[in-house]
Amino acid sequence: MKFGVVVFPGSNCDHDCHHVLKNVLGLDTEFIWHKTNDVSKFDCLILPGGFSYGDYLRTGAIARFSPVMDAVKRHAEKGKLVIGICNGFQILLEAGLLPGAMLRNNSLQFICKFVHLRVENTDNPFTRNLKKGQVLSVPVAHGDGNYFADEATLADLEKNDQVLVRYCDAEGQTTPESNPNGSARNIAGIVNKSKNVFGLMPHPERASEKEMGSLDGLGIFHSILQTA
Amino acid sequence: MTTQTQVIEITPEIIARHGVTPSEYEEIKKILGREPNITELGIFSVMWSEHCSYKNSKNVLKLLPKDGQRMLVKAGEENAGVVDIGDGWVIAFKIESHNHPSAIEPFQGAATGVGGILRDIFTMGARPIVSMNSLRFGKLDSEITKRLLSGVVAGIAHYGNCMGVPTIGGEIYFDESYEGNPLVNAFALGLARKEEIVRAKAEGTGNPVFYLGAATGRDGMGGASFASKDLTAESEKDRPAVQVGDPFLEKLLLEAVLELLKSGAVVGIQDMGAAGLTCSTCETASRGNTGIEIDVAKVPQRETGMAPYEIMLSESQERMLVILKKGREAEAKRIFEKWDLHAEEIGFVTDDALMRVKEKGVTVAEIPAKRLADDAPVYVREEKEPSYLKAVQSFDPKSLGSPGDLNAVLLKLLDSPTVASKEWIYRQYDHMVRTNTVVLPGSDASVIRIKDTQKYLAISTDCNSTYCYLDPYEGGKIAVAEAARNVACSGAVPLSVTNCLNFGNPHNPEIFWQLKKCIEGMRDACLKFGTPVSGGNVSLYNQNPKGAIDPTPTIGMVGLIEGYAPVTSSFKEEGDAVLILGETLEELGGSEFLKVIFGVKSGRLPRLDLDRAKSLTDLLTTLAKHGLLRSAHDCSEGGFAVSVAESCILEEEKEIGASVELPQGHLSKEALLFGESQSRVVVSVRPDDLKKVEEVIKSSAYPYQVIGKVGGRALKINGLVSAPLTVLKATWRNAIARRMQSA
C-alpha cells in the first residue's frame, strides 16, 4: 500500500505524518507537491494539518483550488482512501468532499491539548481496527475546529454511520465540557457516504509514539492497513 | 524625479530628531569626509542606534564569557550563536526582545517578534524546531494588562502556530514595574548538520545580490531607533513604527531558504530585521570585507513615491537579502518560483568596501560599509549605586508580623498569576507540532527529542527580576543558576545560554550600574557552570512615565540529555519517597510571599553559593543518568510549599497527594514553607531506589533530607498545611483564566 502526503504551501504537519507512516510504521510513503495533478500511483492520500495559504480568507478555502485537488477528487471517486487531518479536514469540507463547515472555536482562541475521543462507528476502513465505544487520547491543535452542519445534514450523518469520532470525557461521556471547540454534537471526525474519505480535527500522527504520550492514533493507521 | 534626498537640508533639529548626538554627527562627517545627506543620516541613525550597535552596552557586554569547546559560532559573529551537540549535529539559538512594539500594538508587536527571531535562525541554515518566550506585564488585575496579555499571547500563537514551530514553554511574571512597558522576549532554536551552517557574508566581487520576500512599505519606519527611546504618552503616535507580520509568507521563505541553501547556490544570506535593507547590506559587506551596491528603484515596493530614505529604513517584515554565486541565478529562481516567492536582483558585490545606494543609477548614499556596521561609537556610561538599595536591603521581614492562616497563604500564592498555572497561555500555542515535544509545558524545563538520535534538549527561560531589583549582582547570578537548575531538573547537562538584557535608560547612572552588576553576576555564574553566552540582545530605554522597569536579564539556557530519559516535575506513584536536596534557611527577603501577602518588595536576597549550585546540577544529572529520579522540581517563587504543591497538581488528570515533614529547627514557619533559599530541589524516587539514591547524594556530599511520601488526595506539610488536591488544583489552574474571563 502506497501513501502520499500532500504538501500545500503552509502545510506544517506534513513531516509529522510522513515520519509516522515511513519511520514508525515502515510504510511506503512519499510527499506530493500541491502543483502536481497526478496521484494515480497512491492508494491512500493524507491531507495534513497546517495553515495552507495562511488560512487566509477561510481555512482551506484557497487550498481547494490547488491543482492537486482535482487529482484528489478523481482518486476519491475511484473509491481510494483519503484522510484529511485538521487543516486537511477543513480543505475536504471546502472542496465539498465532506459535508458541513468549520467555524471559529467557540472560545475564539486557538486550542492545543490532548482530548478524549469516543469511537462511534467501525464499519469503515479508518476505524475498523478499533472498538465501538472505545475512548482514545489524541491531541487537537486548531483555531477553527467548531464543526457545523444543518440539522438535516447532521441527521443524515448519524443515520449513515458517518460520524466516526466524537469528543468525550475520560469515561466516554460526550459532555459539553469535553467539547473543546463547540462542534455540533461533539463531532470530531466524519466519513463520506462511500466511507473512503475521512476528515478529523484531532491529530492521530501526534499520538503514534510512546514518547509523544499516547499510541491511540495508531489505531487509525492500522485500520487502513487492514483494508489493503 | 525629486526625492527627499535632494530637498531636505540637514539642520541641527533634523540631526537631533534622528537621535544622533552632535559628537556622533562630527564622527559621521569624519567618516564620509563631508556632510551626509538625509538618506545617509537616516542610515547612520539606525545603524548607530542602541538596538543595532549596542553602543551603550558593548563596554559591559564584553564581560560575558563567550568561549567554550562546543561554540562553533560565537556571540556577535552572526545572527545567532551555534553550539555543537555532537555526532555532527549543531544548534543555533537566540533570544530577542520586541518590547516597545508590543507595548504599542501587542498582537503585531509580539507576532513580528517571533517572526524576526525565527528568521535569524533559519538564515543560518538551521531549521527552527522550538520557540519559547519570556514575558513581563504589570499586575494582571488591570484592564490594560489583560488587553496586553491577550494581544501578546494571541500574536505569538498567530505567528508560531502558522510557522509550524512549536512554542513549548517560557516564563511570565506580573509586577507593577512593567506597567505600560511590558517585555516580550522571543526565543528560537534551530537544528542543523554541522556542514549546513551558513554565514551572512557578501563575498566574491560581481556576485549578484537578490531581494527576496515581501514588498517594502512604510511600516516599521525606523523601528530600531524607535526601540532606543523611552516610551512616553506620545509613543501611541509611533504606531507606524510597528510592523505587520505575515506568517504564511515567512513559512514559504523558511522552506525556500532551506531548499536554496541545500542547493549550494548561496554565498551569504541575511534577514532584513531591525534597520532592514540598511543593516543587511552593510553587515554582509562588512563581514565579507567587501563592498555592496544596490539600486533602490529595483526593490519591490507596495507603496508609491517612496524615497530612498524610506526604502532603506523600512522594517517591513518577511524580507531577505541573498547573495548568490554568479551563474547559479536560474537554479535559485526555480526555487523561488516553486514557493511562489517574489525575488529581484537589486545589486552586486563590489571590491571597494563601500555601501553604495543608487536610485535609477544615481548615487544617493555612499558610506564605508565596515565603519558604518562596526564602528559605532562606544560609550562608557557613568555608573552609580542606586539610592534605594540600602533601604530595601536592610528591611527585616520579621517586622511584618503574622500572615495568618498558612493554608490560606499557600492558596493565595498558588493564585498569584506569577506562580499559577500558565495553561491559559500555552493552550493557545501549538506546542506539539513536529512531534518532538516529549515534556509538555508546565515542568521546570521544556524538553524536545532530536529524531534519529539518543539526544534531547532541555530549555528554560528564567529571570527573577525582583531579585535583580533588590540586588543586581546576586540577581544576575541567580538568574543563570536557576536556569541551570531547571534544565538539570529535567536531567540535562547545561550547555550554553543566550540572554536578553532588558533595562531602563542607560543614561541614568543608577540604571547603568544595575546593568553592569547584573552582567557581572551572570558572568560569574556562567563561568562556574561552564555555559558560555552564545548571543542575545540588549533592550534599553524600558521606561514608562513612572520610571524604569526592574532590571530583567532574561536567561535562555539550553541543556543536553544523551542516552537516558528526561525527568519531569510531577509526582508519579503512590508510595514514592520524597526528598529535598539543599538547605532551607531563614530567607524571606525578595520572596513572592512578601509580595503577595504583604505587598512588600524588599529584603535581603537568599544567598547563592555558586560551588553548591554547580554540585547540585551535577548531582541531578547523575541521578537522572542512572534513571533514579521519578520527579524533580526546584524551589523558586513561593518556596518549598509551592514546589511540593505543584508536583502534586501539575499533571492534569494524574494529580496525586503527598505528606511531608521538613524539620523546622530554628526557622520561622513562614521561612520554612515560603522562603526561597537557593539550590533546593524536591525529588521523588521509587522506594526500592531510595538506598541507592542516598548513596549517590552522600558521595557528592550534598545536603539532603528524606521528608515523606507521595500518595493520598491531599497535601500535608508538617501539620502546618493540609489541603485537598481539588482545592489546590482549582486555585492554581484557574488563577489566570479567572482574571482573563472577567476582562
Structure description:
The complex is a heterodimer of chains A (228) and B (743). Chain A has 228 residues and is α/β, with parallel strands linked by helices. Chain A is 21% helix and 26% strand. Chain A has helices at 14-24, 67-77, 87-94, 151-159, 218-227, and strands at residues 2-7, 28-33, 44-47, 81-85, 101-103, 111-119, 135-142, 146-148, 163-168, 187-191, 197-200. In chain A, the strands form 2 sheets. Chain A has a 9-stranded mixed β-sheet with strand order 2-1-3-4-11-10-9-6-7, with helices on both faces. In chain A, β10 (187-191) and β11 (197-200) form a beta hairpin. Chain B has 743 residues and is of the alpha+beta class. The chains are: A alpha/beta (228), B alpha+beta (743). The A-B interface holds A 9-10, 12-13, 15-16, 19-20, 23, 35, 49-51, 53-56, 109-113, 139, 141, 143, 170, 203, 205-206, 209, 211-213 and B 154, 157, 161-164, 246-249, 251-252, 338-340, 426-435, 437-438, 440, 449, 451, 653.
